[in-house]
Amino acid sequence: MSTSTQTLPDVDTSEETGDDTPKMFHYVQKNKIAESAVMGTMVVALCGEVFPVTRSPKPGSPVCPECKQIFEGLKPGPGGGE
């Protein structure tokens, strides 16, 4: 079974700074992104973090080191893992 992932933001609600930019982004199943963004459902990152999708990463955004390590250890699927 092949699983496609994409990097998504870590939502930190414990600190109100006026800036809603996530501290880092996480890898989650790609097919769950749109549902979460539209319906507000929660997604589970590779590292186990659970949050709703609220932002997309921009090039150069910081990525969760645990998610990155897990993602790099996954075997590519038939489409190359993209």
Describe, in short, the structure shown.
This protein is an alpha+beta fold and 82 residues long. Helices cover 20% and strands 20% of the residues. The strands form 2 sheets. It has a two-stranded antiparallel ribbon with strand order 1-2. Strands 3-4 form a two-stranded antiparallel ribbon.
Q: Biggest β-sheet, characterized? A: 2 strands, antiparallel
So what's the oligomer here? single chain
Which outline best applies? globular
Portion in helices: 10-25%
Count of alpha and pi helical runs: 2
Hey, roughly how much beta strand do the residues contain? 15-25%
Report the order of strands and helices.
EEHEEH
Low-confidence segments: 13-17
Mean pLDDT: 80
Q: What's the number of extended β-strand segments?
A: 4
Structural class: alpha+beta
First-last Cα distance: 14 Å
Radius of gyration: 13 Å
For the largest sheet, list the strands in their spatial order.
Answer: 1-2
How many domain units?
A: 1
Question: What do these coordinates show?
Answer:
The protein is an alpha+beta fold and 82 residues long. The protein has one domain (5-13, 21-73). The chain has helices at 33-39, 65-73; strands spanning 5-9, 25-29, 42-44, 50-52. The strands form two sheets. Strands 1-2 form a two-stranded antiparallel sheet. A two-stranded antiparallel ribbon has the order 3-4. Strand 3 (42-44) and strand 4 (50-52) form a beta hairpin.
List its traits:
DUF3039 domain-containing protein, two-stranded antiparallel ribbon, two-stranded antiparallel sheet, alpha+beta, globular, 82 residues, DUF3039
